[in-house]
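Final report, closing paragraph on structural work. Over the funding period we assembled a curated collection of sequence-structure pairs, and we close with a single example.
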Amino acid sequence: MGNVYTNAKKDLTTTSVTTLYTAPALTTSIVKSIVVSEDSGNADTITLTITDAESSPATFSLYKTKAISANATAELLTQPLVLKTGEILKVTAATANRLHVVASILEIS
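Its predicted structure, as stored:
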């Protein structure tokens, strides 16, 4: 199969934990970028976690209540993030209908 470039996008319309991306079977995923945009004119916060079913505890915080300014865009990664098969990136907004999230990913199989 080789290398496939893809992205994952979510409009965070609730305050529930939302799956942004799950690394596919037999694939190593390199997350190059995670951009968060606030589009309501109100500052908000986002939480970003990675879940690994093989670990205990299974959920690890990458950002815990990261502030996003009103009408601003923020890049959450300063370096690429490697995900193994089955690992899940999850995002949670403090307030519904304010944040959009886009991740740019390279899948290597």
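The chain has a mean pLDDT of 95. The radius of gyration is 14 Å. We thank the funder for supporting this effort.
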